[in-house]
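Hi R.,

Here's the chain you asked about this morning:
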Amino acid sequence: MANFYSAVSSDSVLNALRTVMDPDLKRDLVSLNMIRDLAVRDDGTVSLRVVLTTPACPLKAKIEADVRAAVSSVPGVKGVEIKMDAEVRSRNASGSQSVNPPTANTIAGVTNIIAVSSGKGGVGKSTVAVNLATALALEGARVGLMDADIYGPNVPTMMGVTEQPKIINDEKRGEIFVPPTSHGVKVMSMGFLVQNDQPLVWRGPMLHSVVNQFCHKVDWGRLDYLVVNMPPGTGDVQLSLAQLVPVTGAVLVSTPQEVSMQDVRKAYHMFDKVRIPIMGIVENMSYFKCDGCDKKHHLFGSDGGKTLARKFDTELLAQLPIVTAVREGGDEGRPIVIREPGSEVAQAFRALAQKIAQKVSILAHAQIDPSQIVQIGRF
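And the predicted structure, written out as tokens:
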């Protein structure tokens, strides 16, 4: 006697799954190659693996529920086994999607590069970069943090890294650095290479050389995201990074007041000229809540980041409060997402990491007109 459940076919399951859309990419999971290892057992159980575009996907539960509902609707299906997985894709994987100069070289093993910039010092850019990188690692991603703030390399302190990078000999690249790891993040910084309190007085060519070494003379291993903590301003380091490697996108950090936003506007135009997408604005030090008071006090003005995002038709990714524990965590080498994971500000950083991971996934599937790619120095 034929098995009653044999009528369930892989094709019928796939047809059902073609109705499940990725909420961000606006395409079905089958055409996006997000359905893997589909199998139909004799007892009517369907097993499959859903491969998301990032482990930090905030819509993971919704996608899983939609997949389960679609498969369960197929006649004859008696059970559904789903394994949720992730595979971070690169914007530059095919070459045709690159928004960087044709001379830009990928970093071995690095899938996406995220620049965190501000145009101005003192707005908490390094704090945002450190907590963003750590939050992405907590979501299950493979993350590196490059401290390109050559003149103020504070990331080793903020990440609690005390060991020095190791130096090994590579047959092809010669001597390379092996970065230390802290809180699940690989870290490389000029702070490892100079004595404490020793100033750096360098000109452009030397800065370009350091950025090049941090990109191509560091064994980053396999990374889903390399977060780059940029220095203030719109100078040599920013242009060197844009010229040397394909940057997936930039996140701009500002405080709400006009003085800060003036410099961030310059940073926006700089990234725009070199065709690096702006993924959004982070408004840091947005407000303060005193002890025993739930009222938000806007010490530096209000909604400056929102105004800036509206002006440039981009997204306000987060409004982060002033919290003493954030500063204390930075001094202790324990980012707030590690130090107080249940706090309001830590949850805001986790949400920020998820939003940026979403942006990277969307950019990875965006088609870029090659005629829009420009060479550094043509503006």
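Residues 344-364 form the longest helix (21 residues).

Let me know if you need anything else.
M.
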